[in-house]
Amino acid sequence: TIKPKDPKRDTSITFEEMKRLMRVYGPIKAVRNRASKDTGKSAKPDSIRRKFYRWFPDFQERFAKTSSGWFMPKAGHKEEMQYRESMREMDQELLVKKRNDKRYIFGTIRQKVDLFQSSYY
């Protein structure tokens, strides 16, 4: 069976071009410190393709194909690099806020439990 084309994704991008764009421009989100399950193994092509579409969610709007077959940012290389850096910084700030809020809420609950236990016994 042949998979139907995904209307959200440009399936004309070659696998090598996906890897090149990922290597040059990087993710749009802050990199999380996660240990890979397959350390030392090469990633499967389907996994790389999924990662590519996560890293380039608005690929069609931001990139155009050149006459030589490469994809380049419509706004220019420098502007794309600045855009991605600003998006990673915003995502990092959001991640820090979420972590701090989680710690604060957990700390508050823990204090209430301790207070309840000390008054109960």
Question: Can you describe what's shown?
Answer:
The structure is a single chain. The chain is mainly alpha-helical and 121 residues long. It is 58% helix and 5% strand. It is built from 4 helices and 2 strands. It has helices spanning 15-25, 45-55, 59-62, 77-120, and strands at residues 63-65, 71-73. A two-stranded antiparallel ribbon has the order 1-2. Helix 1 (15-25) crosses helix 2 (45-55). It is elongated. The termini are far apart. The model has no long low-confidence stretch (mean pLDDT 81).
Shape: elongated
For the termini, the CA-CA separation is 67 Å
Spatial strand order of the main sheet: 1-2
Our count of helices gives: 4
Jot down its keywords.
mainly alpha; two-stranded antiparallel sheet; single chain; elongated; 2 strands
Q: TL;DR?
A:
The protein has helices at 15-25, 45-55, 59-62, 77-120; strands at residues 63-65, 71-73. It is mainly alpha-helical and 121 residues long. The model has no long low-confidence stretch (mean pLDDT 81).
